[in-house]
Amino acid sequence: MSIRPVTQEPGSAKEWMNRPMAIPGCPPGLEYLTQLDKIKVEQLVSLVEAFTGFERNNKYALRNANNEQFFYAFEGNFISSIFIF
Fold it and tell me: Coiled-coil stretches, from where to where (predicted)?
Protein backbone atom coordinates (compact mmCIF):
# COMPACT_ATOMS: atom_id res chain seq x y z
CA MET A 1 0.00 0.00 0.00
CA SER A 2 1.43 3.39 -0.96
CA ILE A 3 0.62 6.66 0.76
CA ARG A 4 -0.33 9.46 -1.59
CA PRO A 5 0.43 13.06 -0.58
CA VAL A 6 -2.48 15.37 0.15
CA THR A 7 -2.80 17.69 -2.86
CA GLN A 8 -5.91 19.57 -1.80
CA GLU A 9 -8.04 19.87 1.28
CA PRO A 10 -11.20 17.78 1.24
CA GLY A 11 -14.07 19.60 -0.46
CA SER A 12 -11.88 22.37 -1.88
CA ALA A 13 -10.42 23.34 -5.23
CA LYS A 14 -8.07 26.07 -3.95
CA GLU A 15 -4.55 26.34 -5.35
CA TRP A 16 -1.60 24.75 -3.58
CA MET A 17 1.92 26.16 -3.42
CA ASN A 18 4.39 24.48 -5.81
CA ARG A 19 6.64 21.97 -4.09
CA PRO A 20 10.10 23.49 -3.51
CA MET A 21 13.34 21.69 -4.31
CA ALA A 22 14.73 19.43 -1.61
CA ILE A 23 17.19 21.12 0.73
CA PRO A 24 19.99 18.97 2.19
CA GLY A 25 19.52 18.52 5.94
CA CYS A 26 15.93 19.80 5.88
CA PRO A 27 13.22 17.26 6.73
CA PRO A 28 10.79 16.57 3.85
CA GLY A 29 7.85 18.96 3.89
CA LEU A 30 9.59 21.65 5.90
CA GLU A 31 11.35 23.12 2.84
CA TYR A 32 8.11 25.04 2.23
CA LEU A 33 8.83 27.12 5.33
CA THR A 34 12.19 28.33 3.95
CA GLN A 35 10.39 30.22 1.17
CA LEU A 36 7.79 32.03 3.26
CA ASP A 37 7.75 35.59 4.50
CA LYS A 38 4.15 35.40 5.74
CA ILE A 39 1.93 32.56 6.99
CA LYS A 40 -1.86 32.88 7.06
CA VAL A 41 -3.83 30.36 9.13
CA GLU A 42 -7.45 29.96 8.06
CA GLN A 43 -9.85 27.91 10.16
CA LEU A 44 -12.18 25.96 7.91
CA VAL A 45 -15.71 26.26 9.25
CA SER A 46 -18.26 23.50 8.77
CA LEU A 47 -21.80 24.59 7.94
CA VAL A 48 -23.11 21.71 10.04
CA GLU A 49 -21.22 23.06 13.05
CA ALA A 50 -22.34 26.63 12.37
CA PHE A 51 -26.04 25.75 12.20
CA THR A 52 -26.27 23.03 14.83
CA GLY A 53 -23.67 24.19 17.36
CA PHE A 54 -22.32 20.63 17.42
CA GLU A 55 -18.55 20.81 18.01
CA ARG A 56 -16.30 18.97 15.57
CA ASN A 57 -12.52 18.76 15.28
CA ASN A 58 -11.15 22.00 13.87
CA LYS A 59 -9.50 22.06 10.43
CA TYR A 60 -7.02 24.65 9.18
CA ALA A 61 -5.51 25.72 5.87
CA LEU A 62 -2.04 27.30 6.06
CA ARG A 63 -1.36 29.69 3.18
CA ASN A 64 1.49 31.88 1.93
CA ALA A 65 1.33 35.58 0.99
CA ASN A 66 -0.06 34.65 -2.47
CA ASN A 67 -2.91 32.74 -0.80
CA GLU A 68 -1.48 29.40 -2.01
CA GLN A 69 -1.96 26.59 0.49
CA PHE A 70 1.15 24.74 1.66
CA PHE A 71 -0.16 22.73 4.66
CA TYR A 72 -3.48 21.30 5.81
CA ALA A 73 -3.90 20.73 9.55
CA PHE A 74 -6.64 19.21 11.66
CA GLU A 75 -7.23 18.33 15.27
CA GLY A 76 -7.34 14.65 16.06
CA ASN A 77 -9.38 12.74 18.57
CA PHE A 78 -6.49 12.57 21.00
CA ILE A 79 -6.07 15.17 23.72
CA SER A 80 -4.53 18.30 22.17
CA SER A 81 -3.39 16.49 19.00
CA ILE A 82 -2.89 18.42 15.78
CA PHE A 83 -1.92 16.68 12.55
CA ILE A 84 -0.26 18.61 9.71
CA PHE A 85 -0.13 17.45 6.09
Answer: none
From 32, 75, 16, 63, select the one nearest 83 (Cα to Cα).
75
Q: Which domain holds residue 48?
A: 37-84
Considering its fold, how many domains does the chain have in total? 1
Closest of 34, 16, 17 to residue 25, by C-alpha: 34
Give the model confidence (pLDDT) of 28-39 as tens digits: 888 888 989 999
Residues belonging to the chain: 85
Assess if residue 41 is contained within a domain: yes
State pTM to two decimals: 0.64
**Ranges of residues in the chain whose predicted pLDDT is under 70:** 1-14, 77-85
* 79 within some domain: yes
Single out the residue of 40, 33, 1 nearest to residue 19, CA to CA: 33
